[in-house]
Amino acid sequence: MKNIFKQIPFRVFIYSDKTLAFFEIKKNYFKIVFFISLFVLLVVSYFFVTNKNYSNIQTFKTENTEIQKLKSEIKNLNTLIDEVSIQNNAFRKMVNLPTLNSETQNGGVGGSSIDNFLFKKPSNLFEDIELMKNKIEIQKQSFTEIEKKYQLNKKMFASFPTLQPMNGIYSSSGFGMRMHPITANSKFHYGLDIVNDVGTKIYAAGGGIVEFAGKHSGYGFMVEINHGYGYKTLYGHCSSILVRERQKVNRGDVIAKCGSTGFSTGSHLHYEVSLNGVKKNPIDFFVDTKN
């Protein structure tokens, strides 16, 4: 059937090919068709909008899940940084550096705000990431400082006169007041006498530079080493000297041999230690011996 619509004011007609006549559509029928069409349009619109909103909700849920994962990762990383900070301070103590307080370790902003991550907006998370980057950089700089101090300490410890310079027996003429064996006068003895045979090896008590190597009126053949950091050692009454002035020596190097030159009553080593020009008891520095 071929339908042709013809509208007359306030009245609607339809033409039928079979009857070759116009039929009037009653007003009530027209209203029904109109409202059905409107309903269909609304239903279609609703499903379109609902589907779009559903897609947005799914996207939001996915993004929110990713944000929660990011928050968790940031919290875990911050915990790891705190653990590294504790270890960092332990290393600083080991190399005699002052420890870093919490404010310094947290980038100079006071305490950590990681515990509040679950209540933060994404934009604030980026600020906390920047904060953690600063904290990591502080730890990195601190470890660099520790490494430098460790190397300095290593060099310094290698210079300290901690090695017993010669194997032997400690003479009764220790550090302090004594009766001089030659003049028989009471006099302060500024060193330690170690007794052994002529030719016994004498070792550098610590690393340093030979400041004097030659003959001294009272000490006979004598070696003096400047260890730096205010320390100097003196080795007297040697039978022979095996180093030269301005020579660099390491702890344990053979520098001379035991003898009885100068004012001496027998074969021994007269050994002195001074710190910033003040004579010290050598025994207080002994840590190890040369086998």
Would you mind describing this structure in some detail?
The chain has 291 residues and is of the alpha+beta class. The chain folds into three domains: 4-66; 75-159; 169-285, Glucose Permease (Domain IIA). It is 38% helix and 27% strand. The strands form three sheets. Strands 4, 7, 8, 9, 10, 11, 12, 13, 14 and 15 form a ten-stranded antiparallel sheet that branches. Helix 1 (27-94) runs parallel beside helix 3. The N and C termini lie far apart (123 Å).
- The total beta strand count reads 15
The total count of helices amounts to 3
Characterize the overall form: rod-shaped
The radius of gyration computed from the alpha-carbon positions, rounded to a whole number of angstroms, is 48 Å
Unreliable sequence segments: 1-8, 109-122
Order of helices and strands: EEEHHHEEEEEEEEEEEE
Summarize, please.
The protein has 291 residues and is α+β, with helices and mostly antiparallel strands. It has helices at residues 27-94, 102-105, 122-159, and strands at residues 4-8, 11-16, 21-25, 169-170, 176-179, 186-189, 192-195, 201-203, 208-216, 220-228, 231-241, 248-249, 254-258, 268-275, 278-280.
